[in-house]
Design goal:
With 128 residues, this protein is α+β, with helices and mostly antiparallel strands. Helix content is 44%, strand content 23%. It is built from 4 helices and 4 strands, in the order αβαββααβ. Strand 2 and strand 3 form a beta hairpin. Helix 1 packs parallel to helix 2 and helix 2 runs antiparallel to helix 4.
């Protein structure tokens, strides 16, 4: 059920984003693509998902430098969340992590996963 709920919420978020996103900045040479892999503690999953979707929605609607933010869930384990993030530049990323909506997400979810856990990973790549 949680998997289906996440799929429906993500579909609604992406559809809404396509219709209401702010004008986006072009990708700069220092643009960033990040994959955040988070294993949420099972007891917190229902609390975590709305916060993750909210920060993505607000970021896409209000931040020109946030080019994409797509949360996904593992088919094998609904507690394993991967968020693909694309930022137009280093400055766009810095602006995003300083934003009130990201700080709300960070403060509200930090206790829901263990950043020391082997499954918590952030992979950052650059465009060719």
């Amino acid at each position: 059920m949680r998997f289906l709920t996440l799929i429906l919420a993500t579909t609604m978020l992406l559809t809404t984003n396509a219709q209401t996103a702010c004008r986006k900045s072009p990708m700069a040479t220092d643009g960033i693509i990040r994959y955040s892999v988070i294993e949420v503690e099972p007891d917190y999953l229902d609390e975590y998902l709305p916060l993750a979707l909210e920060v993505g929605d607000i970021s896409m609607r209000t931040e020109p430098g946030v080019l994409a933010m797509y949360p996904t869930v593992s088919k094998e384990d609904s507690c394993k969340i991967t968020i693909m993030e694309i930022y137009a530049s280093q400055d766009a990323y810095k602006s995003h992590i300083a934003s009130p909506h990201f700080q709300k997400y960070k403060q509200g979810t930090f206790h829901m996963y263990n950043p020391q856990n082997e499954t918590y990973k952030i992979r950052q790549v650059y465009t060719l």
